Amino acid sequence: MPNTPEVSVGPPDLLGWRKVTINAKSAGKVRSAEEFRELLHHVGLACGHPVHWLGGDSTVWPDRTVRRRTVGVLMFTGLLATSCLLAWIGWLDCRNALTFGGRLAGYSVLAAALVQFAAALAALDYWHQRERRYSGVLVLAGVAIVFLCSSALILLQKGEHFNAWSWIAILFLLGSVAAGIELISSRAWKGLQHPQRIAIGAIVPTLLACVNLAYAQVYVPYATAPLITSGGEFREANLVRTGGPMHLTVHVYVKNEGRVPVYILGSIYWVHGGAANSMSKEKPPADHLIYDGEFVTPAGRELNPGEEVSQDVVVEIKDPEKVDYEALRVQTEAYVIRRDRMTLGSDYEQSRATVETLKKAGKWRPKEPDAAQYRNESGISNSSEILNIARGPQRITVWRVVPKGDRSRIDVAVSPPGDTIVFDPLNPLYNKPIIERYGLSKVRGAMDQTPFKELLEKARSSEEGSGS
C-alpha cells in the first residue's frame, strides 16, 4: 500500500546498536528484538510490520549486555579511583612540595586528575550510547594515564621496600593493559579527526616546552651541588696565673656559600697537640687529643644560602710549660643533607638520648654502632608526595661515636623504620644511592695549625699586661 511506512534496520555497529529508519528518516537505535518491538509500538506500527533488514535478519543482535556493562563499570571505577588518587597527590604537592619543580609537578598531576574525571564520565557514554564523538578518545587517554602513572610508580619503587602501594600499582597496571586491549579492539580513536595534524600541531610543541621547563626548573636546581665550607682558628690565649692552665679561644664555623639550603645533622671539632707537620718522610708521633665537642646547636638546624653558624669555644691546657707540643691543630667536620630533597622531622632536635637511657627504655637496637655516646633520630618526608608513596616511611639516625684509642666521629644512617644502615664515608659505592637521593655528605673543614710556643708567648704577654 502506498501509505505503508517503509521500515529499515541497519547493520549492527561495534556496540551492537542497529539503526532504525522509517521512510528514510532516523527513528532511533535498538540493541535487541524487545527494544525494536517497543520502538514500533511507540511509533504506532504493529509488530508484524514489514521490515527491510540490512546486515543481518531479525535474529542478529550481537550486543552482550552483561559484558558491556561490566566492562563499562570497571573502567568507570578505575578511572574515577585514579582521578581521586591523583587529585589527592597533586593537591598535597601543590601545597607542600619543597621545590618549584615539585609544585609544578603537583599542578600537572591535578590536570591529569581532571582528565581522568572527564574520562570516567566519558566511559559511561562510550559503553552505553556513544552519543559523544570523543568519548572513546577520552577513555583511551585516561587508560594511557593510568598505564603511565602505575608504570612510573613501579619504576620509582625499584630497589625500595615492597609495600601496599606496590600492589596497587601492579593492579592498576594490569587493569590499564586489559582496558587498552579492549579499547584498541573496539577502535576507540575513531572519533578523533586528523590525529596526525593534532600530534604535530599540539603534542610536539607541548613536549618541547615541557622538556625546556624541566631542564631549567627541575634538572638544573636538582643537579646544583651544595657548597658548604667549615673550619676553625685559634684566637686568644691566656694564662690564668703563673704555673696555671692556659685558656685558648677557638673560633669554629660552618657556612653555606652555595644556593642549596641544607640541614646540619651533626657537627664536631677536635683540638690536637703534637708534632708540627713537616716534609720529612719520617712518620710524626701521634697527636694528642686535647678537646672535642659539638659546635652547631641545636642539631638539625637549617643552614640557608649565605648563612653562617659560628661559635667561640674555650679550651683549657693544663701545665702548658710542661707539655712538649710543637703545634696545636683544630679541625671541624659536619654532616649535611639537602633541604630541597627532604624534610626533617620537627622532633629531631629533641630526640637526643644517651645510649644508657635508650638501653634502659628498651629502645636500643641490635647492630647499632659500638662505642656510641648518644643518638638523634627522626622520621623524614621526601620532597614530594609521589616519592613518599614510592619510598614509604624513612628514618634518619645520627650517632656520636667515641671509640677507645681513636678520635670521636659521627655516623649517619637513612633507612626504612626497623632497619639499621650505618653511613660509611669510606665506601662510596655503598653511599651512592643515599648521596644521590638526599644529597647527604660529610663536610671536612680546613685545618688550622699554630705553633704552640707562639700561643704560649701570647698567653704570657696577656698575663703580664693584665698584671701591670
Q: What do you see in this structure?
A:
The protein is an alpha+beta fold and 468 residues long. It has four domains: 7-53, no CATH class; 65-192, no CATH class; 230-333 and 445-468, Immunoglobulin-like, CATH 2.60.40; 342-438, no CATH class. The protein is built from ten helices and 18 strands. The chain has helices at 33-42, 65-96, 100-126, 135-156, 164-185, 195-223, 355-360, 385-391, 428-438, 452-467, and strands at residues 7-12, 18-22, 25-30, 51-53, 228-239, 246-256, 262-274, 288-293, 302-303, 308-317, 327-338, 342-344, 353-354, 372-382, 394-401, 409-415, 441-444, 448-451. Helix 2 (65-96) packs antiparallel against helix 3 (100-126), helix 3 (100-126) crosses helix 4 (135-156) and helix 4 (135-156) packs antiparallel against helix 5. The chain is rod-shaped and about 135 Å long.
Number of domains: 4
Computed Rg: 37 Å
Distance between the termini: 140 Å
The average pLDDT value, as a whole number, equals 81
- Main beta-sheet strand count, sense and barrel state: 6 strands, antiparallel
N-to-C SSE string, H for helix and E for strand: EEEHEHHHHHEEEEEEEEEHEHEEHEEH
Report strand %. Answer: 25-35%
Note the overall shape. Answer: rod-shaped
Low-confidence stretches: none
User: Oligomeric status of the shown chains?
Assistant: single chain
| Secondary-structure content class | alpha+beta
Helix content: 25-40%
The overall strand count is: 18
Helix tally equals 10
